[in-house]
Amino acid sequence: MALTPTGHHKDPHHHGLLLPSVQRRGEEGSSLGFSCSEEVEMGRGKIEIKRIENSSNRQVTFAKRRAGLLKKAREIGVLCDAEVGVVIFSSAGKLYDFWTPKTTLPRILEKYQTNSGKILWDEKHKSISAEIDRVKKENDNMQIELRHMKGEDINSLQPKELIAIEEALQNGQTNLREKMMDHWKMHRRTEKMLEEEHKLLVLRMHQQEVELSGGMREMDLGYQQSRDLAAQMPFTFRVQPSHPNLQEDK
């Protein structure tokens, strides 16, 4: 392990990766290692790397460090043409992620699992992934069949395949005609029901008109009879004096 002029050591197993400078323990010739509380040398002095107790300061530091980390990830992806993926969860559980445009996070994780030998997905996730692949394949086949039914992309088909498509179209046409006939019959039944209801309604209206006109005739007849009876009554019974004293004077 070589010590760089900037005070950082370079690990030969990490290409170009600079690690923080280490502190010596004991006297000269003793082994090198990190102290229990790591310190990072900043512009204003050394900062002890440990949990920040103040919540406000912790949130501010998280925002700054997160932005710096994502920025470095973008830079290494552009400068070195590397596939980079970063996933960050805050203490509140909020997700922040980034991956280089030419790849995806699932692809990065898949490559990590393949190269590291670590299993990231259990059997349940494998079965779900297999089911998703099966459904996608089935959907692709259905899309191809649909295009063939429309007469598209059929130049490369064999005679057997063309015959199968023709039979499928004929069966579909037969089923379509039967369905249309069922709809026509249902429409005719509905039309007949409406006609019967219309006739019944007209009949009821006619009956109501007859009853109403009959009642009016009875009322006219009663009124005429009352006038005839009044005409046959004596005059003395029809006219009553409103002032009795007038008859006494006569």
Question: Would you write up a description of this structure?
Answer:
By secondary structure, the chain is mainly alpha-helical. Helix content is 59%, strand content 11%. It is built from six helices and nine strands; from the N terminus they run E-E-E-E-E-E-E-H-E-E-H-H-H-H-H. It has helices at residues 55-80, 105-116, 123-149, 159-232, 235-238, 245-249, and strands at 2-3, 9-10, 18-19, 23-24, 32-33, 39-42, 45-48, 85-89, 95-99. The strands form four sheets. It has a three-stranded antiparallel beta sheet, with no helix packed on it. The chain has a two-stranded antiparallel sheet with strand order 4-5. A two-stranded antiparallel sheet has the order 6-7. The N and C termini lie far apart (159 Å). Mean pLDDT is 75; it is low at 1-37.
Q: Mind summarizing the main beta sheet? A: 3 strands, antiparallel
Which range does the strand content fall in?
5-15%
Category by helix and strand content: mainly alpha
Mean pLDDT, all residues: 75
Q: How does the overall form come out from the CA principal axes?
A: elongated
What level of helicity do the residues show? 55-70%
Order of helices and strands: EEEEEEEHEEHHHHH
Number of strands: 9
Q: Strand order, main sheet: write it out.
A: 1-2-3
* First-last Cα distance: 159 Å
The number of helices is 6
Give the uncertain stretches in residue-range form.
Answer: 1-37
Radius of gyration, taken over Cα atoms and rounded to an integer in Å: 51 Å
